[in-house]
Amino acid sequence: MGELSAASSSAPAGSPVPRHVAIVMDGNGRWARKRFMPRVYGHKVGMETVVKIIDHCQHRGIEYLTLYAFSSENWKRPEEEVSGLMNLVLVGVSRYLAGLARKGVRIRVVGDRSKVSPKVREAWNLAEVQTADNPGLTLTVAFNYGGRWDIAQACQSAMRAGLTADEITEEQLGRHMAMSHAPDPDLFIRTGGEVRISNFLLWQLAYAELLFTDCLWPDFDEAELDKAVTEFARRDRRFGGVKTQTSSDAAA
Ligand code: IPE
Ligand code: IPE
Ligand code: MG
Q1: What residue ranges line ligand 2, CB within 6 angstroms?
Q2: What domain count does the chain have?
Q3: Which of 22, 49, 146, 219 has the fewest CB neighbours in a 10 Å radius?
Q4: Cα–Cα distance between 8 and 183 in angstroms, integer?
């Protein structure tokens, strides 16, 4: 059940720093191909970018970072790539978990864990258990995650909890969504040049500011994140209402 009201949009309008950033880390394969390297090499380097970006989010005071690491549809990739990605989870947890825990990062994993191997499941469970009480950045990894899966599982979970059809409101359903531990994302970033959501957080992105960049994920760095945050601060968030008049507007 949710720790936060799921329909909450976190950062107030005009806030310079998004409270929750959600990223589709795309472009690893093309980055590797440009270097005549296998796709899995791109994923490996992409994992180093992840560590850099976690640090920088903490530095910038971002409270929640959600990373799309493996979609419900990514099983369609060649077996070698899928097993390479699964192996990277094991490598990543053994290499980086202790350091992240020391920095106070709290790790959560969202997605259908029933379909992944016991080893990968155990690695994610370990990461969650060892960091559960940490007070710092909440890092959510979307793994075998799909936005449609999330909505369907939330309905199932709500019905299992005994809710009747009339009781399934937006707020109630939100409490059963996989991201109920976090406020809705304020800023969505997709690297890699594609302009689509690819079944990421369909429910939660309702009022996120969307930002697409051609930068391939392994090239994404602190300066790119700073640029995205600057662009976010320029956006006028209205949440369906009207722009609230500021004193400078009134003077104009
Ligand atoms: C995103 O990079 C990472 C995952 C889906 C795991 P891609 O592997 O999709 O890279 P491109 O889009 O083929 O370049
Ligand atoms: C989205 O990227 C999934 C992740 C980054 C994990 P894809 O590369 O799978 O998306 P499509 O196929 O271009 O839509
Ligand atoms: Mg891709």
Answers
A1: 24-26, 68-71, 74, 194, 196, 198
A2: 1
A3: 219
A4: 6
Taking the C-alpha atoms of residue 229 and residue 224, their distance in angstroms, rounded to an integer, is 9
Residue at 42 is within a domain = yes
Domain range for 85: 18-236
- With the most atoms of ligand 1 within 8 angstroms of its CB, the residue from 24, 25, 28, 74 to mutate is 28
User: Do residues 66 and 142 touch, judged by C-beta distance below 8 A?
Assistant: yes
Nearest of 199, 169, 203, 171 to residue 185 by alpha carbon? 203
| E strand spans, 46-172 | 64-71, 106-110, 138-145
Q: Measured between alpha carbons, how far is residue 135 from residues 65, 90, 103, 151, 190 in Å?
A: 14, 24, 9, 28, 27
- Model pLDDT for residues 70-121, shown as the tens digit of each residue: 999 999 999 999 999 999 999 999 999 999 999 999 999 999 999 999 999 9
Torsion from C-alpha of 52, 56, 59, 64, nearest 10 degrees: -110
Does 218 sit in the ligand 1 pocket, CB within 6 Å? no
Distance CA 62, CA 80 (A): 35
Looking at the domain assignment, is residue 90 inside a domain?
yes
HSE-up (13 A, CA, CB side) for residue 225: 26
pTM score: 0.93
Residue 6 maps to a domain: no
What is the C-alpha separation between 203 and 184, in angstroms, rounded? 9
- pLDDT tens by residue, 34-46: 999 999 999 999 9
Of the residues 23, 24, 30, which should be mutated to test ligand 1's pocket, given the most ligand atoms within 8 Å of the CB? 30
